[in-house]
Each structure stands twice: as structure tokens, then as C-alpha cells.
Amino acid sequence: METIIDFDTVSYTWPGGKGLQDVRLAVSGGDFVLVSGPSGSGKSTLLRLAARLEEPDSGTVRFAGVPLADLDPPKLRRRIGYIQQTPVVMEGSVRENLLLPYSFAVNREEVPPSDTVLQDWLNRVALARVGLDDVAAALSVGQKQRLCIIRSLLLRPELLLMDEPTSALDRESRHIVEQLTEELNREGMTIILVSHSDYRPQVAHVCVTVKDGRVAQGEGRMTVCDASVEVV
């Protein structure tokens, strides 16, 4: 598979002097990449650089061979989905939240999905009892996170970045999100998921460890994560 995103000697400095250093990382299309490491090591920063929410101090991040700096940001947001650790919903109904991306200028030529399609997605993530007219803000944290994931997926991104999406969820919600993520990968979507838990995907995956601002990538794809791969 061709490389979908790569970091070419990328460095990024946080306030105070620390940060990511000399990152070299290549992710192939269709990969499931599990990113782990201690809290504060730079895992979230790695994803934010991939989504161009941060700019590197040096080096280049490329998407499909093109530097992120050369890509139109609104169009890049369509091609790369980004799921935060804490779900963010807007005022209004579940339907209005799901269709929010279609209100943006870059997506106005896209045909919004029907209520049937939206309900099918809700069913897929075990939200069958949630109505499209329900108030989004009244949902539980786990339900809101699943709502945000659906919202990101409706525009069919090529790459999905997930920053500890299950950290605030109960066991049932966490399992549902993990299953969905693995199903999407089996369907061909590239996934980069940051996890601070002992989660091990049930699909072939690549392990990346971030520690002290350094990034190490495991060799090949595996079904059991090799936690020993790290750079100190």
C-alpha cells in the first residue's frame, strides 16, 4: 500500500522547551496504527501535527505525498477526520449535530444523508434508542462520543485520527467504539488511534510508542502489540 501520511524529521517544541524531536514515521493506506506512551509524552501532539492543527518547527508532514502546508485546510479537514478525547456537541438536535459539517462552505455541494442513513449509523453504534430529534447535549458522554465519530465519518475521510476516544467512557461504550474502529479498518479506512490503556486491536496493526519526545515504530503489522518497542 502507498504511504498515506509521513513525518519527515519533524520536530515540535512546547512552551517550556520540551516536545517531539526528529520524528520519522510513515503510515500506509489501510493501516491500523496504535500509538501508546506515558501521559505528556507527545502522543496528542503527533495527531495534531497530522491534522495540521499544529505546525512543526522543522521537518515536513506529508499527506498522500503532498506537504500539509501545500493543501487547502478546509479540503484537508474532509480527507482527515479527527476525534478528540472529549466529545464536543453543539446546541440543537442529534440530527443538527450530525449534519453540521454539511453547513460548511467547502461541503455545500455534498448531498446531506437522509434520516434513514443517519438512523442506520445510530443503530450501528448501539444508539438505536436515540432519536434524531433528541437534544444532543442531553446525551451521556459515551453517546456524545459515538455521535461525534458518526459526524466525522459521514464525509468519508481517508484517514481517521482518534485521540484516546474511549478514555472517559464506560466499559460498554468503550467496547462499542473499539469494535466500530476495527470494522472501519477492515473496510479499508486508515486509523491512527492514541490509547493510554491496555487496548489491543483485534485486527493486524502497527505499534508506535512515544516517550520523552521520541517516536519508535514497530516492525511490520502484528496482531498482538509488542509493548517493548520504544525509544528512551
TrEMBL record:
Write the record's keywords in alphabetical order, separated by commas.
Answer: ATP-binding, Nucleotide-binding, Transport
Pfam families registered for this protein in UniProt: ABC_tran
Q: Which GO terms describe its molecular function?
A: ATP binding; ATP hydrolysis activity
Keyword Protein transport in the entry? The reply is no
In terms of PROSITE patterns, this protein maps to:
ABC_TRANSPORTER_1 (PS00211), ABC_TRANSPORTER_2 (PS50893)
Domain ABC transporter: where?
5-231
Superkingdom to which the source organism belongs: Bacteria
Q: State what protein this is by name.
A: ABC transporter ATP-binding protein
* Organism from which the protein derives: Desulfovibrio subterraneus
